[in-house]
Amino acid sequence: MIRTESQHEVPVSGWYACLSLFDKRPEDIRKIFIVKSKTKILGRILKWAASEKLAYKIVPWEELEKVSGTMHHEGIIF
Q1: Contact between 13 and 35 (Cβ < 8 Å)
Q2: pLDDT, position 7
């Protein structure tokens, strides 16, 4: 989830969208939801999240669908 200028949280899902957000505006990331199978690939992001005391949660695919509102989340949501 990211915080917008109006202070509403908006889910960002998908590999390229999330990685781009991490590279360009990491300070806007508020929460991270990922599936277990992606934890190794996202190791540097999870280490960063832990160092920033940012919440991240490893969840099943179905929960990501609920959080994002789509089944096209590719296993990651910020």
Answers
A1: no
A2: 67
